Structure formats: structure tokens, C-alpha cells
Amino acid sequence: MDSFSTVIRTASHEEHTEAETSTFMSDMLGGRLGVDAYARYTEQLWFVYEALEAGAERLASDPVAGPFIRPELFRLAALERDLAHLRGPRWRAGLSALPATRAYADRVRECAADWPAGYVAHHYTRYLGDLSGGQIIRAKAEKTWGFARKGDGVRFYVFEDIPNPAAFKRGYRELLDAVRADDLEKQRVVAECKRAFALNTAVFRALGEEFPLSA
Ligand code: HEM
């Protein structure tokens, strides 16, 4: 039988491809969007990580979600530095969530409050992705918009306290494999993971509408 980490990875493969090949992501990775689109995207991430990390402290002692709460993953401070760089010192005043972002953050908060295993699905979908494909996005952003390598503007993608992401991901998969839940609950977590991808794709769709290439 496949390990839980393998089941999650395999089950969300199609959703991953969909997110990765969304118009907005393709345009961004193709270097076809302006820095304003990147800043708007970074703002949306702020709402998602605010939801993920505001709930983290309380979940740290939870038997299921607790082992996943690792300060070296926290992204909110890095996002805030990036936003100050992208939008200026008054970045907070102009911050606004797209409806799709609000729906995503609401769902994360709901899981953080009532369903720790569901929170793990959201945690996995974001942080393991940031440690993987995030590095491709960082390189592209540095090249397209001229940010300093691993500097302001792309700090979100730089995990200063994770020197070896591949090893960290292996450890993370071991944590997933150690989650104590019955098969039905594991199926629910897999479904939540797919939902997390769909919530990301919905944000990309909204951003794609806001930044159409023909405009
Ligand atoms: C253009 C955008 C993206 C690219 C180029 C990309 C690329 C990648 C690559 C190359 C991996 C494999 C890393 C490995 O095997 O260790 C990966 C894994 C992953 N990505 Fe993405 N990705 C992108 C977008 C996303 C998005 C939007 C999400 C979800 C929000 C996401 C979530 C994940 C997750 C959860 C994994 C870990 C899979 C696992 O090993 O269990 N990715 N990505």
C-alpha cells in the first residue's frame, strides 16, 4: 500500500498541473506580466499566510497538526518585507483580498479552528509547494523584474532557516506518513488537499482576469 504522502501527492497531481498551467501562472513564468501583477499576487498570498499562521500557535499543541507547525516555515514576515518593497511603506493601506482569496483564507481559518487534519492539507499544499515550484517562481521573478537574488521582493520564496529543502521535504513526508487517522479521515484530508489546490486555481483565475495580456 502506498504511503499517505504518496497518496496525497498522486491524488493532487492533476490539480497541480492545472494550477501550474493556469493562464496567470503561465503568463507570470513567461515573463509577460508587469511587476504590478506580481505585487497583486503577493498581496493575495499575504491573506492566505495570515490565515495559515494566525492559527499556528494554537495548533502547535494539537496531536495531528502540531508536528507540522515549524517556525522555519513561517512566511508572513517575509511577505511583509516583500510588500514594503513592492508597494512602499504604506503597503497595508492598499491591501485588499480578491473574493477568491477571501474564500480561500476563510476555508483555511475554518480548518484551523475546527479540523486540524484539514489544516494539514492546506499546510502541505502551500508550504511544500513553496519549497518546490516556489524556487522556479523566485528565479523567474528575479530575472523578469530585477529583484536582487533572494532579496527584497522575493523573500517569500527564501527559507533562510531551511538550508536543505530536499531533506526538509523528506522529513515532511515522514510527518505525513505518521499522521494517525483512519482511512476515511485520510480520504477527507486528500479531498481537502484537492480543494486547497482548487482554491489556489480560483485565485489565479481572478488574477488572470485582472491582468489580461491583451489589456
Ligand atoms: C508555475 C507554478 C509551479 C511550478 C513550476 C511548480 C513546480 C513544482 C515542482 C517541480 C515540484 C516537484 C518538487 C519535488 O518533486 O520535490 C512541485 C511540487 C509541489 N507543488 Fe508545485 N509548482 C507550481 C505551482 C504550485 C502551486 C500553485 C501549488 C499549490 C498551491 C503547488 C503545490 C505543490 C506541492 C504541494 C508540491 C509537493 C508535492 C509532493 O512532493 O508531495 N505548486 N511543484
TrEMBL record:
Keyword Transport found: no
GO MF, one annotated term: metal ion binding
Pfam (any one): Heme_oxygenase
Keyword NAD annotated: no
Gene Ontology terms describing biological process: heme catabolic process; heme oxidation; response to oxidative stress
InterPro entries xrefs: Haem_Oase (IPR002051), Haem_Oase-like (IPR016053), Haem_Oase-like_multi-hlx (IPR016084)
UniProt KW keywords: Heme, Iron, Metal-binding
Annotated heme b binding sites: R9, H16, Y124, R173
Record-linked CDD domains: HemeO (cd19165)
PANTHER family assigned to the protein according to its UniProt record, in alphabetical order: HEME OXYGENASE
Name by which UniProt lists this protein: Biliverdin-producing heme oxygenase
Organism: Streptomyces ferrugineus
